[in-house]
Structures are given as structure tokens and as C-alpha cells.
From TrEMBL:
Domain Methyltransferase type: 86-190
PANTHER family for the chain: METHYLTRANSFERASE LIKE 7A, METHYLTRANSFERASE LIKE 7B
Name listed for the protein in its UniProt record: Methyltransferase type 11 domain-containing protein
InterPro entries xrefs: Methyltransf_11 (IPR013216), SAM-dependent_MTases_sf (IPR029063), Thiol_S-MT (IPR052356)
Transmembrane segments: 16-38
Length: 263
């Protein structure tokens, strides 16, 4: 078998490891049910169960994933965030140690999964950000709740989105709304896994999508996030990393970089 085919097959098996952790997360949630920390009606609530399983899974995987990001441009991108920052889906706060505090006025962490809030709060404290960090319990698409925190059109200097657009319910609408929240000249920092440009890999992404969203908080492997960003509005600068060779077979190719809103 040609080396390329082996590499491709290996890449297509990658998500199985994550799914094994998902089974572990599901077992922990079921254990909570047996020990009466969950009500029977909660077990029948699909969205709640998905959030609960993802909460367990993410707390197991977050450190490993954050470490793997050290080899990428993400830490430097996060360190360039400035002013009033809207971090969508901060999870347990893996990006927090990467901020340069001297550049920041305020951070809003918009995190809809309440099961991650304790861990997030703990990281906020550890990073010495308690005085400038506010956790907002809603989805990035809930612009009404965001407005109640003063996060309104043109009010944000930097938006940070790290592996979140894959999970929002209405991605194009959410990305366009996020664009509106930025002030002219403001920057959107993006690190998102997206649809493959390779037809076979896209089919495999579609197959995994049958089971993937439930344990991974609504995550889809094949979102065209790059296209959503381009359609969101006018950018004066688009600094996105070029495609890599492994993007042909990877089920997690990424769009990474910074976009600056036109004046
Ligand atoms: C893969 S985790 C990434 C966490 C964090 N950004 C990081 O890099 O460590 C995805 C995060 O997006 C959050 N999320 C899911 N749906 C969301 C939505 N509609 N709005 C904002 N965040 C959302 C999840 O709860 C989770 O914390």
C-alpha cells in the first residue's frame, strides 16, 4: 500500500480515540445518575445530556489539547488580543494563560455549558484575571443576553474563537453577528477546525458527524467556517495561514489567523 494511503487511513482513524474518551464521559454521567446527582428526566433531555457528557470529556482532554497547540501560532495570536475581548466558548479557560494582561481592559467569556464554569472560574483566578473577567452564561448566538452585558454592535476590540464555531447552532448567523460586535479596526482571532477541501475526507467527516455532535457538545467536523467569515462582512486585512500538505487527509484541517474589520 502506498505510504500516502496508510497516512490517510491513520488520519481517518484519529477520531476513534476521541470517541473512546466520549464513552468514558458518558459512563461518568450515567454514574452521576446512579448516585442521584441527575434526575431521570435529565437523562431524557438530549441537549442537557450532550452538555454533561461534553463537560466530562473536555475536562479530560483540555490539557492535552492545549499542549498540542504549543506548536502552532495560537499562543502568539492569543497574546496579541487587546482592549475589550470577547472570548466565545472559553471552556475551562485553556487560552487564559496565553493572554498578555498588559494589553487587556476587559474579557467576557461567553460559555453556555454551565458544567465548565467552575473550572473556568478556577483558571480565571489562577491567571489573576478575576478583576477583569466576566463569565457570561449564554451561546455566542444569543445577542440579546450579550447586549444586557453591554456587548453591543461595535463595542468589542478583539473576538477570540478557538474551536467553537464547529458547535454553534447557526454558524453563519453567529459569525455575522460576531462581526457586527467588533468595532471598525477590531480583530477576530480564529483557530477553528473546518470542512476538508478533499472530497474523500469530507465524506469521512460526514460519516463521523452521525455520532460526533452528541458527546462533543454539538461539534460538527465539516463546517465551512472560512467561508462564513468571508461572508460576514468587509475585512481590511485577512491574515490566515495557508493550507498545509496534511490538510488533504486530515479530518481536522484548520482555519487559523486574524481578520481585521474594515473601517
Ligand atoms: C472544543 S471546546 C473549546 C474550548 C476553548 N475555546 C479552548 O480552546 O480550550 C468548545 C467550547 O465551545 C463552547 N460552545 C458550544 N456551543 C457554543 C455556543 N453556541 N456559543 C459559545 N460557545 C459554545 C463549548 O461549551 C466549549 O466550551
Amino acid at each position: 500500500m502506498a505510504l500516502g494511503t496508510v497516512t490517510r487511513l491513520q488520519a481517518y482513524l484519529d477520531p476513534l480515540l476521541f470517541l473512546a474518551v466520549a464513552v468514558y464521559g458518558l459512563l461518568l454521567v450515567l454514574l452521576d445518575a446512579f448516585t442521584f446527582q441527575l434526575k431521570t428526566k435529565d437523562l431524557l433531555n438530549r441537549n442537557m445530556m450532550s452538555d454533561k457528557v461534553f463537560g466530562k470529556v473536555w475536562l479530560k482532554l483540555n490539557k492535552r489539547i492545549a499542549t498540542s497547540q504549543l506548536e502552532t501560532s495560537l499562543p502568539a495570536l492569543v497574546a496579541s488580543a487587546s482592549g475589550t475581548i470577547l472570548e466565545v466558548g472559553p471552556g475551562s479557560g485553556s487560552q487564559l494563560p496565553r493572554y498578555d494582561k498588559s494589553k487587556i481592559t476587559k474579557i467576557y467569556g461567553v460559555e453556555p455549558n454551565v458544567d465548565l464554569h467552575d473550572a473556568l472560574q478556577k483558571t480565571v483566578k489562577q491567571c489573576g484575571l478575576s478583576d477583569i473577567y466576566t463569565i457570561v452564561l449564554c451561546g455566542a448566538e444569543d445577542f440579546q443576553t450579550l447586549a444586557s452585558y453591554g456587548i453591543e454592535k461595535g463595542s468589542v476590540d478583539t473576538i477570540l474563537s478557538v474551536q467553537v464555531i464547529c458547535s454553534v447552532p447557526e454558524p453563519q448567523k453567529t459569525v455575522s453577528g460576531m462581526y457586527e460586535l467588533l468595532r471598525p479596526g477590531g480583530q477576530m482571532i480564529i483557530y477553528e477546525h473546518v470542512e476538508s477541501h478533499d472530497a474523500v475526507s469530507r465524506i469521512v467527516q460526514g460519516i463521523y458527524n452521525v455520532v460526533w455532535p452528541f458527546p462533543f457538545g454539538g461539534c460538527h467536523l465539516d463546517r465551512p467556517t472560512g467561508k462564513y467569515l468571508m461572508k460576514a462582512g468587509k475585512w481590511s486585512r485577512v491574515e490566515l495561514e495557508p493550507k498545509k500538505e496534511e490538510d488533504d487527509w486530515s479530518l481536522f484541517p484548520r482555519v487559523v489567523g486574524r481578520l481585521t474589520k474594515a473601517n
